[in-house]
């Protein structure tokens, strides 16, 4: 391990001060996080961890983080830097390991999406949060867009929903883990859109049918395109189409949305155009922080107030279950996959996979997966968040 400093640094953590955090993962998104944190009123980056030490050191130097500690061990860097929390921006398959290291070291974590590649791995993390009593929040940063909040405001007034449609057509070239995944669209991108659906309505996903494929010209190894239809608890449908290798007519990264309901219809282009076709329905566009800045704000606020953030680990499991349900359905030729069954099968898998007795003990103590994710592990009440509203 190398470090730019050897002495432990004391940082103020009182309300009003910036929370000292270690960023784990100094890749493309980690760099974006460090850049945002460097000027955040809520937190300050005091350490950077990456398996690639040169990359971590170069991020610290490039972004001018004087005195930040660099290393490859989360607990050690956090200790030396006097950090009070961790922001996990590693690749999805490393999320559980890093989150566990941090939580066991007594550090709350804000973890990039997707929480894990599978629901079974997500449930193991719920158990770790349970065991340690620490806050584990998933940064689903696309929940925090002011025009999404406006769209939600309009949709809430439309009465019972018939259907929500979302279309995502993009073409992104980001060599690395995405281009090697079996399901780069569903696992790495649609998780945002499925989670946004859960923000948009209080409806609960019940079942899914999905078809995924890889267009012949795709530069992804796995399926870069999919269509999925979700049944929601109310009887409404969520109809989704997406592609990461669309040569033209691209949508916003946030997808293009349309809802129809008893009292009318509404749409959002994913950027700054919300339209409503219904008598007497208006909406407000808030002016608040968006994206990862807003996600960080909710994390720090929840930590200090002891409240439950929107995407506390347990709440996020259902968004992930939508992803895995879609993948299962696609791999089984479009078979209808029931989310509740997927959750219970994932709990059995989690118990089989878990090597640590204490974590396995927590998983075994749940009467069901539904029971395990029923009560937030952290916080006494939903946080009153300025940016985007609690679900
Ligand atoms: N919210 C968004 O809009 C958004 C956008 C892009 C990426 N992301 C997410 O951010 C995460 C990182 O994506 P990226 O594009 O920066 O990936 P990346 O491959 O560029 O960087 C990941 C870094 O993590 C490091 N790493 C891997 N395992 C580690 C471990 N165990 N300990 C320490 N470091 C480790 C790697 O060395 C690498 O430097 C992913 O989960 C991705 O889905 C989110």
TrEMBL record:
The keyword NAD applies. GO terms for molecular function: nucleotide binding; oxidoreductase activity. It comes from the Bacteria. InterPro entries: Gfo/Idh/MocA-like_OxRdtase_N, Gfo/Idh/MocA_oxidrdct_glycsds, GFO_IDH_MocA-like_dom, NAD(P)-bd_dom_sf. Residues 157-266 form the GFO/IDH/MocA-like oxidoreductase domain. Residues 21-138 form the Gfo/Idh/MocA-like oxidoreductase N-terminal domain. Keywords: NAD, Oxidoreductase. This is Gfo/Idh/MocA family oxidoreductase. It comes from Lacisediminihabitans profunda.
């Amino acid at each position: 391990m190398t470090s730019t400093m050897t002495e432990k640094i004391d940082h103020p953590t009182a309300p009003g001060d910036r929370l000292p955090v270690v960023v784990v993962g100094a890749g493309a998104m980690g760099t974006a996080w460090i850049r945002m944190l460097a000027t955040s009123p809520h937190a300050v980056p005091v350490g950077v961890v990456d398996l690639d030490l040169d990359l971590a050191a170069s991020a610290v130097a490039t972004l001018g983080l004087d005195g930040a500690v660099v290393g490859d061990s989360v607990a050690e860097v956090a200790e030396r830097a006097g950090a009070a929390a961790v922001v996990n921006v590693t690749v999805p398959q490393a999320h559980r390991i890093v989150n566990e290291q941090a939580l066991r070291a007594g550090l709350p974590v804000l973890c990039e999406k997707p929480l894990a590649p599978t629901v079974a791995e997500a449930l193991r993390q719920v158990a770790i949060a349970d065991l340690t009593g620490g806050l584990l929040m998933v940064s689903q940063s696309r929940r925090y867009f002011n025009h999404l909040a406006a769209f939600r405001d309009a949709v809430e007034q439309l009465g019972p929903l018939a259907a929500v449609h979302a279309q995502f057509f993009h073409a992104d070239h980001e060599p690395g883990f995405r281009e090697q995944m079996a399901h780069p669209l569903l696992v790495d991108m649609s998780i945002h859109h499925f989670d946004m659906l859960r923000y948009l309505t209080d409806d609960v996903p019940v079942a899914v049918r999905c078809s995924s494929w890889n267009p012949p010209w795709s530069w992804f190894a796995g399926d870069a395109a999919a269509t999925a239809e979700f049944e929601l608890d109310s009887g409404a449908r969520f109809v989704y189409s997406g592609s990461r290798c669309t040569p033209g007519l691209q949508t916003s990264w946030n997808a293009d949305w349309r809802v129809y309901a008893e009292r009318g219809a509404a749409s959002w282009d994913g950027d700054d155009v919300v339209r409503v076709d219904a008598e007497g329905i208006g909406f407000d566009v808030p002016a608040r922080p968006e994206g990862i800045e807003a996600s960080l704000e909710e994390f720090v606020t929840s930590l200090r107030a002891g409240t439950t953030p929107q995407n506390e680990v347990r709440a996020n499991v259902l968004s992930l279950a939508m992803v895995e349900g879609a993948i299962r359905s696609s791999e089984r030729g479009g078979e209808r996959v029931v989310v509740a069954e997927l959750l219970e099968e994932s709990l059995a898998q989690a118990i089989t996979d878990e090597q640590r007795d204490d974590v396995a003990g927590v998983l075994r103590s749940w009467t069901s997966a539904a029971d395990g994710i029923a009560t937030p592990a952290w916080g006494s009440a939903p946080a009153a968040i300025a940016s985007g509203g609690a679900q």
